[in-house]
Write a structure and sequence with these properties.
By secondary structure, the protein is an all-alpha fold. The chain contains 10 helices and no strands.
Length: 190
Amino acid sequence: MLAPGHCGLCQLLAGLADRHGSPFTAALAAASAAHVSIAVPGTHHAVERLETALRLFATLGLPYEVARVRLDLATVLAATRPEAAVVEAEAAFDAFERFGAATDADVAAALLRALGVTPRTGRRTASELTERERQVLRLVGAGLSNPEIAARLHISRKTAAHHVSNVLAKLGVRNRTEAVAVDRGGEGRR
């Protein structure tokens, strides 16, 4: 086990990045070292390492990686600096929404809700759903479970779950009940 306050793996990652000489490798090393700092008791450099990774990924013009690091930074800051965590989580959420990264956006939205903030989203109407997602939403409204939806549409359970997740994300809701309420409220009916 690593001694408190000392992170041999972090030093190894930094050394490998220095030898490679690539800003991308340095950014990956900083992000990885931050994760080690979070996981190993007695190491307290996660914020500094995440800020380094954020700066490097931004310099490289890698917006998805920037958003991932912002989400990690928000998670680390949540306990000690919630206002800063909200700023980072909102930036990550907005980026994930733009990229269509629904799963990552859901994680950022959950963190924002845990911090007492309702995530903003521009996608709140059923009219923006694909035809298949509208079919899934109708079946959700009929009270069908994911396995029942899969059987009805002749798709796998995993695909049904994926469609339900996309519907929730696009409508900006947390659960099936809210999705049905949005649909029945007429928001987005074509």
